[in-house]
Amino acid sequence: MTLSRLLVLTTVVALWLLTGGARAADTIGMDAGRDLVLRYLHEIDCGYAARAALPENNARFEAKLLERMPPAQYMAERSARAQAVSRRSSACEGLGHQVRDVSIQYDASTTALLQQAALAGDRYARLQSDFPASDDPAAVARARTQLQEIVQSGDLLAIGDIGWALARSRHPRLYGSDTNNGDMQVIDTWMLVACELGLDCGSGSRPLDRWCLKLWGCAQPDLAGAIRAVHGEAYFLKVDAQRRALVAQIRNRDLQGLFAPVVATTGPAA
After folding, report:
1. Kind and range of the H or E element at 52?
2. Where are the domains of the chain?
3. Has this prediction a pTM greater than 0.90?
């Protein structure tokens, strides 16, 4: 082997080690960030479970049963809720959450986990903590890129949280959602998108347990059924149509169109 060929081979090997090492380091950071996120989600679940166990919260749940469900379903709903409370109360000792019927003030160490995960590069944590609130064009462009990267990555936990980010933004229409700030519809839609793409949303899953602890519909087989039970058929069909459209765009890899701004249209004069 000539000296020149040996130098070329050495350079190639060095570059491979450097890029491979960078990828490994990045993976380690992402894995560490996801571990922090899972701890964070567990501790948030502890707060939801503690609030659901309060007598006044349980009384409100019972009132919903009487108002919205046939008596034959009471026992199954109560049992499913009790199981969700038990699951999400596990290993919650030592947390300093201040839990009230209408609010939860989380332990500072819990909220710190999310920031640490964001610094480690976790996509879910960055979406929760770093998504821009500004509607400045440069900020919106960066946010669209962030959303596209999340979908492209296939990170189901982060994909399921896209709706929360859009609902918290000042103008969801800048990101393809024909909704207003604070609208729960976009939140439900993106959760169901994640469910369709493979996130566990069935009995005993975190998405269904959280829905159950905050609202009801605990005995439904999956999150879609719980949304339908709580909000009714008309609402569910609208959300489900949006879910199907978004999933089709994702599977067709139309990432640019997925978060393109909604163009305002003027209807015919009355």
Report:
1. helix 3-52
2. 132-261
3. no
